[in-house]
Amino acid sequence: MHVTITDNQPLVFRAEAQKILQDAQTAASICPVRHVLDRIGDKWSLLCILHLGATDTLRFNELRKQIGDVSQRMLTVTLRSLEADGLVQRHVYAEVPPRVEYQLTPLGHSLLVAFSGLGTWANAHAQEVAQARQAFAAREKSEG
Amino acid sequence: MHVTITDNQPLVFRAEAQKILQDAQTAASICPVRHVLDRIGDKWSLLCILHLGATDTLRFNELRKQIGDVSQRMLTVTLRSLEADGLVQRHVYAEVPPRVEYQLTPLGHSLLVAFSGLGTWANAHAQEVAQARQAFAAREKSEG
DNA sequence: CGGCATCCCGGATGATACTG
DNA sequence: CAGTATCATCCGGGATGCCG
């Protein structure tokens, strides 16, 4: 998606934001956007979704290895939460040693698609953000 | 965006996720996705961005009122963080009483666009997630 | 009005040890 | 292998009070 930004064009964006906020206030007094963010805004959920989305099916320790620095406990907790939300499917095989496989549900896939925009943004603008932060720190220092 | 999900089609999603993860591992050892998520994954950042995107320019207490239940402290902290990241512009008017206005930068607008997919997903699937959670809770209870 | 400093609590997260 | 249980820790974030 290519976006050109001029002085008088942010109306497009404004409409976007207004639509989200408006839809968000329909049903309950609790904004669904905040609700979902509370769920997947934690440290590991989206990483799990990304990795599961990238590899289709993963065993517990495979997923753990891919993410790298997640503790066993937190991976368990996170996966349970995702399972409860209907985003991840858990499949236990009655074997010795045990084997447990995880994969995204259709709902999880749809979230992955919705998230892809944010993911590509992160990769595209990471440097820009880093620079902005440096500039801000410098400004603060000189004014401090 | 309309998405049809069949058994043999998740390759599309897999490619999505793989691309994000792949891009994310290029530059540094620190994944930009996680970095950005750490920034905007907190309780208030995205809400600020949404409201600023919806209204263009807002004063401190206007924004606070719109969000509703954010403490003064957290709104300040959040806005500072967003400013440091180059997502929000802060404008102080030398008046008495003081007036401080906030608005999104172009970078902030681009993030809003990237986020819109997630926002609409949240609104569209909030109910589905709620149902899944209920079903999960019921399952857990019966299995005890 | 907008913001900073201080205190403090609770939940999120980690480390470690044990189990089916 | 894939957890569960327990304890320790850390930090987000709320409450309050003061300031320019």
From TrEMBL, chains A, B:
A Pfam short name: HxlR
Gene3D superfamilies from the UniProt entry: Winged helix-like DNA-binding domain superfamily/Winged helix DNA-binding domain
InterPro entries: HTH_HxlR, WH-like_DNA-bd_sf, WH_DNA-bd_sf
Keywords: DNA-binding, Transcription, Transcription regulation
Domain HTH hxlR-type: start-end pairs: 31-130
PANTHER family recorded: TRANSCRIPTIONAL REGULATOR, MARR FAMILY, TRANSCRIPTIONAL REGULATORY PROTEIN
The protein's name: Helix-turn-helix transcriptional regulator
Naturally occurring in which organism (per UniProt): Hymenobacter defluvii
Source taxonomy: Bacteria, Pseudomonadati, Bacteroidota, Cytophagia, Cytophagales
